[in-house]
Amino acid sequence: MTEAAATLRTNLVPGAYRGVAVASFDGPLQPAELTRHFLGREAYRRTRFIVVRNGDDTAIVEIHKESDQPLFAPISALSLLAGPAECAYVEDPEVDTAVPTALARTALTRAPGKRGVVVQGRYGHVSFIVDPRPLRVTVREASPPYPAKLLDQAHRVLELAEELPPIELVPDVMDLAEQASHAPDTSLLLPCRGGGVTVDGVSVDYLDERPERRQWTLIGCERSQQIHEWFYGERAPQVDICPRKRAGGTGAILAKCCLLETHIETDDTQVVVPWGASLAQITDALAALADEWEPSWAPA
Length: 300
Ligand SMILES: [Zn+2]
Fold this sequence. Notes:
Elements: E1 19-24, H1 31-38, E2 42-44, E3 47-54, E4 57-65, E5 72-82, E6 87-91, H2 100-110, E7 116-120, E8 126-130, E9 135-143, H3 149-159, E10 167-175, H4 176-182, E11 187-190, E12 203-206, E13 217-220, H5 222-232, E14 238-240, E15 252-257, E16 265-266, E17 270-274, H6 279-293
Parallel strand pairs: 1-3, 6-7, 9-10, 9-15, 11-12, 11-13, 13-14, 15-17
Antiparallel strand pairs: 2-5, 3-4, 4-5, 7-8, 16-17
Helix pairs in contact: 3-6
Bound molecules: zinc ion (ZN).
The site of zinc ion has 7 residues, from loops.
């Protein structure tokens, strides 16, 4: 039995079609004893992992069989992915254990510091994650609305993302009300009323209402500037809020851009979606970031 097999694989989770069996064993959850107990025993065709429990102790074992063809076949080799000292068992009926992000979040919040975390979640299903280290994705956008839309949508996508590696979203949200309060002008033009930005002592007009031209500063994106030019024949002094153009930051970035209408684009480190992106487009964008930053990740 080998012990080091999992150390190079972070975010190890079983694939959807890989069965995780749960077994109890009235002995020490150590390599020699586990091998003696399980070697030669029959395992179901799809079973690739066994969560072994003895009282409060838990171990995660990967098994190998000589063949996956027959319905059952004898176990021919075992490796210990996480032993009882570094393994936790969490029960949480709210967690969909088929979603890697949900597994990682549960592991990091409910059993911080543990390498291997088994989760008994929704429908009573049992799965696990070894060495949870979610891909951090910075989400660049502007708000209102509240909650910030792209960030909220990305969270909703990840709630159901069975095919994506574990992802943790890091908000980088520009607050338009704050931008407005720092603007040099006492007269501001915002893209639309929907956001409901108000600033004390400052008059605010909304571009989508095509107000009478005044001397104002546009708090908006390039598309708003283009609309301004269309309406009034000139560009306005502007605080550019387009998240795509925001400087700085490293790592994976999800941003949106006013000028994209129908497709997503990839810049250097960021994937950019349209301002009104659909959940499907955000799913595609997160998948593109995962391909770029976690190219070798796949369910085990
Ligand atoms: Zn833009």
